[in-house]
């Protein structure tokens, strides 16, 4: 009996243990899952650009200087300028961009001056043209004022891309008049600013030379030999010179051993002096400097230094081509330029500095 009770009790304990085990394996209750909130997105920062485009600029075609675009959209004004003793000092010559010095009769010299970036109200004394002037001024185009000449030279000048303004002829004679207190023919004046305004629609000139960005990068300044003076002799009368002024940063002109001064009191000077050795033809009855279709030697002076060059000019309306001894185009410094057309029978002497 006792053993029966023991069996029943054991069975009960085993049953209770099974029930407890089944309860332990039941799935646990979990809380309901909820969607996670979207992470907040910071807005992209905005930046205001501080970059400023460099201002637009252009190059002055006769001087190589930096200018505002459109500020020189006008024709160049050129004039034949007297250099006889009674013609000095000249009016407005100190403000020319480019000045050519040419041999005329009697061994004396005369100027073909061109103004574009700095235009005076008046220039003078205005004199007559010579047979080389079409070659000199045609590359600029624009306007040329002169007092007349032999008919063959006037005809040649009229056959150029230049507007001819002749003293005492045509519709523009009101702007070329005798206005200097000097004896004739050394008293003719051209109203340069008014003539340019009258023909403001004419084309501006093209760039005439290769230019460096600043004087120290010009070919002569960079590669040339130091020089202090330049002595030039055209003939018995036509003698002139240049001396380098470190204080002014320019070449200062002399004539007859004396400082060459304009009517304004300003000494004539240049940033660049170009000396071209040229051939002269006397068959027209007056000296004719041969330029179109020609070539030769010479030198360029800039920043107190000189460098030898070869020059050439293909045709009447073509600019000069200036090359160094390596055949590379010579770069001038930005500024004014005087071009001395020295005969190959004359002298061009450089004094080392």
TrEMBL record:
PROSITE patterns: PROKAR_LIPOPROTEIN. InterPro entries: DUF3048_C, DUF3048_N, YerB-like_sf. Keywords: Signal. It comes from the Bacteria. Pfam families: DUF3048, DUF3048_C. The keyword Signal applies. Residues 1-26 form the signal peptide. Residues 62-200, 231-339 form the DUF3048 domain. Residues 29-50 are annotated as: Disordered. This is DUF3048 domain-containing protein. It comes from Microcella alkaliphila.
């Amino acid at each position: 009996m006792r053993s029966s009770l023991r069996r029943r009790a054991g069975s009960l304990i085993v049953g209770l243990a099974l029930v407890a085990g089944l309860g332990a394996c039941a799935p646990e209750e979990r809380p309901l899952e909820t969607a996670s909130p979207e992470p907040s997105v910071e807005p992209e920062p905005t930046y205001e650009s501080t970059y400023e485009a460099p201002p637009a600029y252009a190059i002055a075609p006769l001087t190589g200087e930096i200018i505002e675009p459109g500020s020189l959209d006008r024709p160049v004004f050129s004039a034949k300028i007297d250099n006889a003793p009674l013609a000095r000092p000249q009016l407005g010559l100190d403000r020319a961009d480019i000045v050519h010095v040419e041999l005329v009769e009697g061994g004396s010299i005369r100027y073909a001056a061109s103004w574009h970036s700095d235009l005076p109200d008046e220039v003078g004394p205005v004199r007559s043209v010579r047979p080389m002037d079409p070659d000199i001024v045609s590359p600029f185009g624009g306007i040329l004022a002169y007092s007349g000449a032999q008919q063959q030279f006037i005809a040649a000048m009229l056959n150029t891309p230049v507007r001819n303004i002749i003293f005492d002829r045509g519709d523009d004679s009101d702007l070329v008049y005798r206005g200097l207190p000097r004896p004739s023919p050394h008293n003719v004046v051209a109203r340069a600013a008014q003539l340019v305004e009258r023909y403001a629609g004419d084309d501006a000139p093209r760039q005439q030379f290769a230019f460096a960005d600043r004087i120290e990068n010009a070919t002569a300044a960079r590669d040339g030999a130091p020089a202090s003076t330049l002595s030039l002799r055209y003939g018995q009368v036509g003698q002139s010179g240049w001396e380098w002024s470190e204080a002014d940063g320019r070449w200062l002109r002399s004539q007859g051993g004396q400082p060459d001064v304009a009517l304004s009191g300003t000494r004539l000077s240049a940033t660049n002096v170009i000396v071209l050795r040229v051939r002269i033809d006397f068959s027209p009855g007056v000296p004719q400097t041969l330029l179109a279709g020609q070539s030769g030697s010479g030198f360029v002076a800039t920043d107190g230094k000189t460098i030898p060059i070869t020059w050439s000019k293909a045709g009447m309306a073509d600019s000069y081509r200036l090359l160094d001894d390596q055949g590379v185009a010579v770069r001038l410094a930005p500024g004014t330029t005087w071009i001395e057309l020295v005969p190959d029978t004359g002298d061009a002497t450089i004094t080392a500095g």
